[in-house]
Amino acid sequence: MTKTIATSRRPMARAVAMLSALATIGAQQTAFAAGDPPAATDLWQSPTLFGDMGGLRPVLAGRGVSLGVNETDEVLGNPSGGLRRAAAFDGFTQLGLGVDTSAFGWPGGVFNVSALQIHGRDLGSEDLDVLELPSSIEAERATRLWELWFQQTIGRADVKLGLQSIDQEFLTSQNASVFMNATMGWPVLPSEDLHAGGPAYPLSSLGIRLRFRPTDTVTVLGGVFDDDPVGGDFANDGQTLGAAQSGTSFDLGGGALFMAELQFGVNFAPKASAAPSQQGSPVPSADVAPTDPGSPGTYKIGGWYDSGAFPDQRLGVGSAQAHRTNLGLYAVADQTVWHRGARTIGVFARLMGAPQQDRNLVVFASQGGVTMKAPFAARPNDTVGLGAGIARLGHQAVLFQRAEAAAGFDVAVRSAEAMLELTYQAQIAPWWVVQPDLQYLVDPAGSAALVGAVAGGRRSGSALVLGLRTSVAF
User: Fold this and answer.
1) Cβ 300 vs Cβ 176: under 8 Å
2) Which fold, 9-473?
3) Handedness of CA 67, 51, 177, 270 (dihedral sign)
4) Residue 344: enclosing H or E segment and its boundaries?
5) Region labeled Disordered — which residues (predicted)?
6) What backbone torsions phi and psi does residue 360 show, to the nearest 5 degrees?
7) b/e map of 139-170 (b: 16 or more CB within 10 Å)?
8) Count of CB atoms within 10 A of residue 122's CB?
9) Given the DSSP bridges, would you call strands 288-290 and 282-284 parallel, antiparallel or unpaired?
10) d(CA 286, CA 270)
11) Are 397 and 189 in contact (CB under 8 A)?
12) Is the pLDDT of residue 230 over 90?
């Protein structure tokens, strides 16, 4: 049930003031780039705000240790639509520690541990009642262990064992990662159809992942993980209950989630370097660099199979009747379609389906869009993007929601939901990114009214969402 939260004008005023201030800073940086640059300082040239930390980072690097601290915060507000007009601030701090074991005479090994401190309030679930959440970092407030794994490379293969968040490697799209809406990261379909949304941010599960590169342009990815990162039945998605709050439950009592993905590269060649994963954890890079004037692209096909139990959608999530096993299929395409110097235009598309309507809320979802790197000559590191997504619910789930609404419950009868997003990532400094964002969420409650006290008898209408995100690497 959605929490009732009074509308506040003050957070919106603070959001506007913050946007204005950061826009002024961005304009100053653009002016510096277009004209004579200011006197060079270590601060504005450093890849991190704290630089080498007084010599600590080079000392650690000499011993194979890398340390990363990242802070991502945002303010979001919906001036129209949703259950009520509101604004919310949320964010997370990530601490990551990586160890290259070759520094100790063990070649090919990488140890990684990362933790999250999540703060703020959620706009999407509390004030909009949407499936495609407007923020990819929206989560329950907690301080938690996130990932804890060891990876060993042997020739063209590597194996990763431990606590893993699978959205770091599976189902990813490089171009889609520019956007703020959650479905552009870990998509809405597995978020709704897997236990607790699956082992994806801010959750993780114990498992083993294998990766093999038979050629420079082909990668085979597969793994098996505990399917329930918080434990309990399907309805339990509590991120703040017991050991699940700290990320130390290490649960193995659920079913097995099998993931498999085949990746193809076009106009690419190997690049021997290391790069951070999507959320900043140090892992060996699977990226490649273009070798000819052709346009590089990456194509992926994959799927999952879950051996766990799933409630019958026609009888509701809390019903005793359950179905064994579940599966889903997907395809992802990232393609550069034009490039000239630093300026490039890329397109992406991601399709996925979960055909078993008796156990899946969302049976089809897709995302797509276009991004441009260096949209302005004076801003070579900025990116602008326009994207869209849609989620369609299964017939059995719709029938159940209609029955609940007819009985007088506070329920949104959804049939489909769509979103449109326009975003701009401004690289203010190598360590600082500011991102204004605009989203339009079409029929967030599935074009049906919510009855009762939660919505005050009003329809949860299509919502306009304005946002501003800032990310700092310390």
Assistant:
1) no
2) Porin (2.40.160)
3) negative
4) strand 343-353
5) 273-294
6) -120, 130
7) bbebebbbbbbebebeeeebebebbbbbbbbb
8) 20
9) unpaired
10) 8
11) no
12) no
The dihedral built from the CA positions of residue 218, 370, 289 and 269, taken in this order, carries a sign that is positive
- 420-452 pLDDT, tens per residue? 999 999 999 999 999 999 999 998 754 444 444
Residue type, 443: D
Q: Is residue 305 a contact partner of residue 325, using CB atoms and an 8 Å limit? A: yes
User: CA 310, 115, 165, 360: dihedral to nearest 10 degrees?
Assistant: 30
- 415 contacts 31 by C-beta, under 8 angstroms: no
CA distance 347 to 176: 9
How many residues does the structure list for the chain? 474
As given in the structure block, the two tokens for residue 92 are 């997370």
Range 452-461, long-range pairs (CB < 8 A, 24+ positions): 452/408, 452/409, 452/410, 453/4, 453/410, 454/1, 454/2, 454/4, 454/83, 454/410, 455/2, 455/83, 455/410, 458/83, 460/81, 460/82, 460/83, 460/128, 460/129, 460/412, 461/80, 461/81, 461/82
Task: Calculate mean pLDDT across residues 20-38.
Answer: 40
Residue 165 three-state SS? coil
130: tokens are 């949407």
Report the distance separating Cα 282 and Cα 167, nearest Å. Answer: 15
What percentage of the chain exceeds 70 in pLDDT?
78
How far is CA 281 from each of CA 183, 291, 372, 470, rounded to the nearest angstrom?
21, 27, 26, 19
